[in-house]
């Protein structure tokens, strides 16, 4: 599936306040995002295909794996699982860790902000969230997706491709042709594949 | 396109310090796809705030008052007020929270009276505002909207 500039991205918004959910939904929709709102961290994990006690998505609920979420935006202060807890769960999951997470809070507490950023959050928004804040979301989504796209192109060809975006160490995979989905894409890793007889550099 | 006196009314509301530019932001988010957005958000605000204030009432009546719980309710109330642009009420909540952190019951009770007063005034002003909106006849429609 090609991703172009007009593609609609799907944002999962998490907030225990109905009023704030309504606000963030409107802000996101006005900014051309497709939106799903939930009122708790545990529901958010369900949408993402992960139960609280799991690390990888359940194989028995394939429909969950089809809901692609491009970004999660979550309130910090929530009863039960806080936004920070949710952030850690997402970043701690091998399949979800590349989904950008933005944390929101009505309180400007520098230690809280730092904690979230260090925990892997892309951004921290102060509430009330503004329409102008929505512009900061797309770059985070595109950053992740362009890496995915590049890896997808590599998967589909049999030539050597040196990924321009990565600086990691290469990993050879021998001479066998790899199936498209037998391994998770890990952005940043140079992948080299050798095909019999031809050597093409792009 | 509506013709209404709202900009003037809105301005007077803002001048009196009850609503700040966050409220205008809400109005900007309202459009044909979400034509009652502002009223819906305001309704949710009063639903939330009434419940929170009842909780605060209870927390203050406890012997001794549970200041920790009180702070949690105030955090929510202040956040909600901030979300709709109710600047004055937000500031009263901030003052209330300070008394709460000092565990100053007298200060809390005084503050709460102020918060309740602001809340009542705000409710009245916003009800008037939405009534005004409903009374206006839209230019491009033949039928009257509302009432």
TrEMBL record, chain A:
Species of the source: Ensete ventricosum
Function of this protein?
Functions as a response regulator involved in His-to-Asp phosphorelay signal transduction system. Phosphorylation of the Asp residue in the receiver domain activates the ability of the protein to promote the transcription of target genes. Type-A response regulators seem to act as negative regulators of the cytokinin signaling.
Q: Which residues carry this modification: 4-aspartylphosphate?
A: 75
Cross-referenced Pfam families? Response_reg
Q: Give yes or no: UniProt keyword Hydrolase.
A: no
InterPro entries given for it?
ARR-like (IPR045279), CheY-like_superfamily (IPR011006), Sig_transdc_resp-reg_receiver (IPR001789)
Alphabetical list of Gene3D superfamilies matching this protein: 3.40.50.2300
What family name appears in the similarity comment? Belongs to the ARR family. Type-A subfamily.
The biological processes this protein is annotated with in GO are: cytokinin-activated signaling pathway; phosphorelay signal transduction system
What taxonomic lineage is listed for the species of origin?
A: Eukaryota, Viridiplantae, Streptophyta, Embryophyta, Tracheophyta
Membrane-spanning residues: none
Q: Does the keyword Transcription regulation apply?
A: yes
The residues covered by the Response regulatory domain are: 10-142
UniProt keywords (A-Z) are: Cytokinin signaling pathway, Phosphoprotein, Transcription, Transcription regulation, Two-component regulatory system
- Renumbered to this chain, region (Disordered) spans 143-202
In this chain, composition skew of type Basic and acidic residues spans: 145-156
Question: Under which name does UniProt file this protein?
Answer: Response regulatory domain-containing protein
Automatic annotation (TrEMBL), chain B:
Pfam families the UniProt entry points to = Hpt
**Which residue numbers delimit the HPt domain?**
34-136
Which Gene Ontology cellular component terms are annotated?
cytosol; nucleus
One GO-annotated biological process of the protein: phosphorelay signal transduction system
Q: Which SUPFAM superfamilies match?
A: Histidine-containing phosphotransfer domain, HPT domain (SSF47226)
| PROSITE patterns in alphabetical order | HPT
Q: Which residues carry this modification: Phosphohistidine?
A: 75
GO MF annotation terms: histidine phosphotransfer kinase activity; protein histidine kinase binding
Quick one: where is this thing mainly located?
cytoplasm
- Which keywords does the record carry? Cytokinin signaling pathway, Phosphoprotein, Two-component regulatory system
Tell me the compartments it is located in. Cytoplasm, Cytosol; Nucleus
What's the record's remark on domains?
A: Histidine-containing phosphotransfer domain (HPt) contains an active histidine that mediates the phosphotransfer.
Role, per record: Functions as a two-component phosphorelay mediators between cytokinin sensor histidine kinases and response regulators (B-type ARRs). Plays an important role in propagating cytokinin signal transduction. Functions as a two-component phosphorelay mediator between cytokinin sensor histidine kinases and response regulators (B-type ARRs). Plays an important role in propagating cytokinin signal transduction.
Protein name as catalogued: Histidine-containing phosphotransfer protein
The species this protein belongs to is Ensete ventricosum
């Amino acid at each position: 599936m090609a991703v172009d500039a007009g593609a609609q991205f799907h944002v999962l918004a998490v907030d225990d306040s109905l009023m704030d959910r309504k606000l963030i939904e409107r802000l996101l929709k006005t900014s051309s995002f497709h939106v799903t709102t939930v009122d708790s961290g545990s529901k958010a994990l369900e949408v993402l295909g992960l139960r609280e006690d799991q690390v990888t998505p359940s194989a028995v609920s394939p429909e969950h794996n089809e809901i692609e979420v491009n970004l999660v935006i979550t309130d910090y202060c929530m009863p039960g699982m806080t936004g920070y807890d949710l952030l850690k769960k997402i970043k701690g999951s091998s399949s979800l860790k590349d989904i950008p997470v933005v944390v929101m809070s009505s309180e400007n507490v520098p230690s809280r902000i730092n904690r979230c950023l260090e925990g892997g959050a892309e951004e921290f928004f102060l509430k009330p969230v503004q329409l102008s804040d929505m512009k900061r979301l797309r770059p985070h989504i595109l950053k992740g997706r362009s890496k995915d796209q590049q890896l997808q192109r590599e998967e589909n060809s049999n030539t050597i491709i040196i990924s321009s975006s990565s600086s990691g160490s290469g990993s050879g995979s021998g001479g066998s042709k790899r199936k498209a989905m037998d391994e998770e894409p890990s952005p940043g890793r140079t992948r080299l594949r050798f095909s019999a007889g031809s050597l093409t550099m792009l | 396109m509506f013709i209404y006196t709202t900009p003037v009314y809105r301005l007077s509301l803002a001048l009196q310090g009850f609503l700040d530019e966050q409220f205008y932001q809400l109005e900007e988010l309202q459009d044909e796809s979400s034509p009652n957005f502002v009223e819906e958000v305001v309704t949710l605000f009063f639903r939330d705030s009434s419940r929170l204030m009842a909780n605060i009432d209870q927390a203050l009546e406890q012997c001794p008052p549970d200041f920790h719980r009180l702070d949690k309710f105030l955090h929510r109330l202040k956040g909600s007020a901030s979300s709709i642009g109710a600047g004055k009420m937000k500031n009263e909540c901030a003052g209330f929270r300070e008394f709460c952190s000092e565990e100053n019951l007298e200060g809390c009770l005084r503050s709460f009276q102020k918060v309740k007063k602001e809340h009542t005034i705000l409710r009245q002003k916003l009800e008037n505002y939405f009534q005004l909106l409903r009374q206006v006849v839209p230019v491009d429609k033949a039928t009257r909207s509302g009432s």
